[in-house]
Design brief:
It holds the Pfam family LptF_LptG. It is found in: Cell membrane. It is built from 9 helices and 5 strands, in the order αααααβββββαααα. By secondary structure, the chain is of the alpha+beta class. The chain has a 5-stranded antiparallel beta sheet with strand order 1-2-3-4-5, with no helix packed on it. Strand 2 and strand 3 form a beta hairpin. Helix 1 runs parallel beside helix 5 and helix 5 crosses helix 8. The longest helix is centred in the last third of the chain and has 63 residues.
Length: 421
């Protein structure tokens, strides 16, 4: 390797690693903000949050690489131009294309790596990330009993307290508990002057130790609702224990999410697209056969009797129309309505199949485009950096944002056109 190549690559490596880390962080932050409401208040551990951040950071790599190459190319060659190093190299008889060659080869390697990463790693990361996100969305909020608010997070119970005291808020004042576990409405109510809240058995159960209260139990009358009676029991101390198993994170089988297009590589996507296309063509061929029973055709045989009858019918004056009964008109109208309903539902089903096939085809092209975009961004950034001759972060960031917005807008437009066929 020439000393010039080492100089260029050394000047490119630092800005590339820096910009890639910054872009990855920005994209990851923006992506996580979309799901912030699904994660807050569920008492998730650092291991769960760490897994989610790791999986989503893997998903951001194909998107971050093109922008990082664009920005680092602008910074590298802008800095070389600003310090007159490009001028010195050119005066030595070395062309600009020769100067760009080491970074071009590096961009080609990054493009190949991005395609492999997008095809082999990203589908697995999608499966891990979105299956975990689904389970986090289904998980209940952490136990949070607030004063003056009815809390029904514990299955079968509704709890209300007037006030919470103590450093940890474990002392409760004015406790009211509705017991719905018997499936009979609010037939059991517990009132207590005060209580103490704590967990037992490693946090698997919540215990409420109630003091100076009464419990009311309704005893319904089988013959008459008006004849129902109440049993009131007073207590000085009462212990109630609730299971907290519903607050645990239960994991769903990842195989249930594997049919999504984001969880497949190019080979699997192509196979699925072929299946959808075969199904679409099969249903299109079945449409005439399914429409045919709605129509009635007059078919004549070749016997002389039928032929004479047909000739007689043709000799009827054109001014005289055959008499049509009301029942025949109603039958024809109903058939027309049925044909229209069938055509509408069939057309919608075929359109949905075609759109689904387009969505899977878009996912195939996305894997190629995100890899080719790395080379495209280098071909934009490197010559432009040599022209503007501005290093640092200011001007390169502004130019990078402009070109990346253009690239993003064209990608969205292309996806919309592809999705609509």
């Amino acid at each position: 390797m020439k000393k010039l190549d080492k100089l260029i690559l050394r000047a490119f490596a630092g800005p590339f690693l820096l910009t890639f880390a910054v872009v990855e962080f920005i994209l990851l932050t923006q992506y996580m903000l979309k799901y912030l409401d699904d994660l807050v208040g569920k008492d998730l551990g650092f291991d769960i949050i760490g897994q989610l951040l790791f999986f989503f950071s893997v998903l951001m790599v194909p998107v971050a690489l093109p922008l990082a190459v664009l920005l680092s190319s602008l910074m590298t060659f802008g800095t070389l131009g600003e310090h007159h190093e490009l001028t010195a190299i050119k005066t030595s008889g070395i062309s600009l294309t020769r100067i760009l060659r080491p970074v071009l080869l590096t961009s080609l390697l990054l493009a190949g790596f991005a395609f492999w990463f997008n095809n082999a790693i990203v589908p697995r990361a999608n499966l891990k990330a979105y299956s975990l996100l689904w389970d986090l969305r289904q998980q209940k909020l952490a136990l949070d009993i607030r004063p003056g608010v009815f809390y029904n997070g514990i299955p079968g119970y509704t709890i209300k307290v007037n006030d919470k005291l103590g450093e940890d808020g474990d002392i409760l004042m004015g406790v009211m508990i509705y017991d719905h576990t018997q499936g009979s409405g609010t037939m059991r109510v517990i009132l207590a002057d005060s209580g103490r809240m704590f967990t037992r058995f490693g946090g698997e159960y919540l215990s409420l130790e109630l003091f100076r209260g009464q419990s009311y139990v309704e005893q319904p009358d089988a013959s008459s609702r008006a004849g129902a009676s109440f049993i009131r029991q007073a207590f000085n101390r009462n212990m109630i224990t609730f299971p907290l198993a519903s607050f645990d994170l239960s994991r769903t089988k990842e195989e249930l999410f594997s049919d999504n297009k984001m969880m497949k590589n190019v080979g699997q996507l192509e196979h699925f697209i072929d299946s959808l296309q075969n199904r679409l063509r099969s249903e299109q061929r079945m449409v005439p056969r399914m429409v045919s029973p709605y129509y009635t055709y007059l078919r004549f045989d070749t016997t002389g009797r039928a032929a004479n009858r047909r000739v007689e019918q043709l000799q009827v004056p054109a001014t005289k129309l055959p008499v049509v009964s009301v029942s025949t008109l109603e039958q024809a109208t109903n058939r027309a309505r049925n044909v229209r309903a069938f055509a509408g539902s069939t057309g919608e089903r075929l359109a949905n199949l075609a759109k689904e096939s387009s969505n899977y085809r878009i996912e195939v092209y996305r894997k190629y485009v995100q890899s080719f975009a790395i080379l495209l961004m280098f071909l934009i950034g490197a010559p432009l950096g040599a022209i503007i001759k501005k290093g640092g972060l200011g001007v390169p960031i502004l130019v990078s944002i402009l070109f990346f917005i253009i690239y993003y807008i064209f990608s969205i437009i292309g996806e919309k056109y592809g999705r609509e066929g």
